[in-house]
Amino acid sequence: MEIRVYPDPVLRRGGQTVTxxxxxxxxxxxxxxxxxxxxxxxxxxxxxxxxxxxxxxxxPTGSKKDRDxxxxxxxxxxxxxxxxxxxxxxxxxxxxxxxxxxxxxxxTVTYTDLDGQEQTxxxxxxxxxxxxxxxxxxxxxLFTDRLTPVDKxxxxxxxxxxxxxxxxxxx
Length: 171
Ligand code: CO
What we know:
Layout: H1 10-13, H2 23-38, E1 43-45, E2 55-58, E3 71-90, E4 98-112, E5 118-124, H3 125-138, H4 149-170
Bound molecules: cobalt (II) ion.
């Protein structure tokens, strides 16, 4: 599984609603979790590996040994949100870039699990931040869209560098 890097256009396409809860979906989720650990991430959304589905995987510790922390969310939707705070974020699709992003502190998410069951999850702070970041990917929204004007300016040359690298690879 290859992680797509900005400005790969698939990152802007987001994901379609998951309707097929077969064994292939479980396999995809497992492979995504592995790819996430390999790259040292705490979350990964399907469009980041070129799969246009509303599917995301995460583990707030990012540790393979901590299987209890693993979550697979299908068709997630935020139903309640409260409070705002800034916090540091990075993204596997933006190697080398980190910046502060404002997110909701407390959220409630409804989603479908791998068995096709509807679930409700309450999350705050770090977990809530990861979910909001990954959920954005499912809508084709990237964390760099949400930076303050000052940070947008700060990362501008890094983004330009990624664009150059992408062009060089594509040609
Ligand atoms: Co990301």
